[in-house]
Specification:
- The complex is a heterodimer.
- Chain A has helices at 46-54, 93-105, 109-121, 137-149, 167-183, 195-201, 232-246, and strands spanning 2-12, 19-30, 35-39, 61-66, 69-70, 78-81, 155-159, 188-192, 204-208, 215-220.
- Chain A is an alpha/beta fold.
- Chain A has 2 domains: 1-77 and 155-262, P-loop containing nucleotide triphosphate hydrolases (Rossmann fold, 3-Layer(aba) Sandwich), CATH 3.40.50; 81-152, no CATH class.
- Chain B has helices at 4-33, 40-51, 61-92, 94-109, 116-123, 127-151, 155-163, 168-205, 212-221, 225-260.
- Classes of the chains: A alpha/beta, B mainly alpha.
- The A-B interface holds A 54-56, 73-76, 78-80, 82, 84, 86-90, 99-100, 103-104, 131-133, 137, 140, 147-148, 151, 164, 260, 262 and B 154-157, 159-167, 170, 174-175, 178-179, 181, 256-265.
Chain lengths: 262, 265
């Protein structure tokens, strides 16, 4: 369970000594096994919120409780999938998957079996010895997912993980993700700016907008799973989401940050 | 791709151009200044004889070459060990970088030969003065490139590694070091080229009694110009082989692998 308690993030803006708010007083709880989508226009602080939960960025105010404990930095209990797969290009697919296992459990005979399981899980057993530059974008994102899943994280944090992929790969990966998540339910926080994606995946959608009102609306989704992409209900939901998004400016002028944040 | 003959001609064209200009120059100098400027043919003949074992400046051309290469290797190994170590440290500890980087930038601006007085004062005439000059010239480009390489490792790689449980030593050796490798290699390539030029120049001045640079300077006194020209060809050939045939392929291979995987960034 992830509890976010009145999180705010302020950046010093360049030069003039002014300060800009990117995130304002966000509180929510992700229950175990819940799939939450953060939906909103670019620049509204979705990624910042995710980075705070991941431990990459410290909040200016508020705190995050993860399974009852206050967290201090990034760690293998919260697996992060980035928009870019960020596989290490100097390691093969198998070595990339082994990277986290070796850090957390040492290099044991079990590591090899776990790596093989990870490759199987994402259907890439044949590519164990391929380097990232030899794989397609979808394959790389699968490996990026596998390197987390072998660590059995207690939460998955995903930052527009499929947005750089073509439509076919994206839908395939969405289904594979749901499948994996349903077999091993952990809280998922999934950042997206795509209304259809949010409607298809989420148990609950948090619509985010620019500060000072970061969370605009929280929409619980009661559609049964598995959902059909072409169903009337899903279509209606996506339309509602689009209406909410349409009330906000389509993109927000980025703050001229002095502190580095992606 | 064109036919093989055409391809061969186009690949040989730069070499043919150099030889043509050289020939024109030599003929012109003979005609107008009446000075014995060695033509390509004369030089080639001399070079072949030298390679067959004829001595020049009291030694075979091989002795001269190996003696230059030995000095180069010695100075360069010190410089690259120092430069890589220092660059890694400065990339990791930003304070070290802030304090030292202006000094290293200045170091890079000083031409190798300007170190002669310093080398002579530190080591006197001889082998160590040359090695010092080689090392000091190669150090700066290597240190600068390695520092930048470590600093420029993508923050997403670091975040991914931390999220996968990497800390301290693992983060450094398994992520930052390989992440900086393309830059480390280009630093080494630049340092290698710079220091090779300095070897030859230093031998001309610091009194080493052997080496290609020494042979060139000596040939001036004995008016043995074909010998000097042969040495120049050997110097150029070694530089070319090391840079183009060894380091460039390694560099482009790493960059290709490292870069492509971030194509859709």
């Amino acid at each position: 369970m992830i509890i976010c308690h009145s999180l705010s993030k302020t950046y010093a803006t360049n030069g003039l000594g002014g300060r800009g708010n990117i995130l304002d007083n966000v509180s929510f709880t992700a229950d175990s096994g819940e799939f939450i989508c953060l939906l909103g226009p670019s620049g509204c602080g979705k990624t910042t919120l995710l980075n705070i939960i991941a431990g990459f960025v410290q909040p200016s105010e508020g705190h995050v409780l993860f399974d009852g404990k206050s967290m201090t930095g990034p760690g293998p209990d919260r697996g992060v999938v980035f928009q870019d797969p960020t596989l290490f290009p100097w390691l093969t697919a198998a070595q990339n998957i082994a990277f986290g296992l070796i850090n957390t459990q040492g290099d044991t005979p079990r590591t090899r079996t776990r790596v093989a399981e990870g490759l199987n899980l994402v259907g890439l057993a044949a590519y164990a010895n391929a380097y990232p530059h030899e794989l397609s974008g979808g394959m790389r994102q699968r490996i990026a997912l596998a390197r987390l899943l072998v660590l059995e994280p207690k939460a998955l944090l995903m930052d527009e993980p499929f947005s750089a992929l073509d439509a076919i790969s994206r839908e395939r990966l969405q289904d594979e993700l749901l499948d994996i998540w349903q077999r091993r339910p952990v809280p998922v926080i999934f950042v997206t700016h795509n209304a259809d994606e949010a409607a298809y995946l989420a148990d609950r959608i948090m619509i985010m907008g620019p500060s000072p009102q970061s969370v605009r609306r929280i929409i619980p989704i009661s559609l049964p799973r598995p959902r059909s992409r072409s169903s009337e209900a899903l279509y209606r939901l996506a339309r509602v989401l689009r209406t909410h998004l349409g009330e906000m400016p389509c993109c927000i002028t980025p703050l001229n940050k002095t502190e580095e944040d992606s | 791709m064109g036919n093989p003959v055409k391809q061969l001609v186009s690949r040989m064209a730069p070499l043919l151009l150099i030889i043509a200009i050289w020939q024109i120059l030599a003929t012109g100098v003979w005609m107008f200044r009446n000075a014995p400027f060695p033509t390509p043919a004369v030089t080639l003949k001399y070079l072949v004889e030298a390679l067959m074992g004829q001595e020049m400046m009291d030694m075979s051309i091989y002795r001269h070459t190996f003696s230059s290469l030995g000095r180069w290797a010695f100075g360069f190994l010190i410089a690259s060990a120092g430069g890589v170590f220092f660059g890694l440290a400065a990339g990791w500890w930003r304070t070290l970088d802030r304090v030292t980087s202006p000094g290293i930038q200045v170091l890079q601006l000083i031409p190798g030969l300007a170190w002669i007085p310093v080398a002579l004062l530190l080591f006197g005439v001889g082998e160590n003065a040359t090695r010092f000059m080689i090392a000091v010239t190669a150090f700066a480009p290597i240190a600068i490139n390695v520092t930048d390489g470590v600093k420029q490792v993508d923050v997403h790689f670091i975040r991914a590694a931390q999220m996968l449980g990497a800390r301290g030593k693992t983060l450094f050796f398994r992520v930052l070091l390989p992440g900086a490798l393309p830059q480390i290699i280009s630093g080494i390539r630049v340092g290698l080229g710079n220091s090779w030029r300095v070897v030859v120049a230093a031998e001309m001045v610091v009194g080493t009694a052997s080496g290609l640079g020494y042979a060139i300077v000596q040939s001036r006194w004995s008016l043995d110009y074909p010998a000097a020209f042969s040495c120049i060809i050997v110097i150029a050939a070694i530089g070319l082989v090391v840079e183009q045939a060894i380091l460039k392929p390694i560099e482009s291979r790493t960059i290709r692998r490292w870069g492509l995987s971030r194509k859709n960034f």
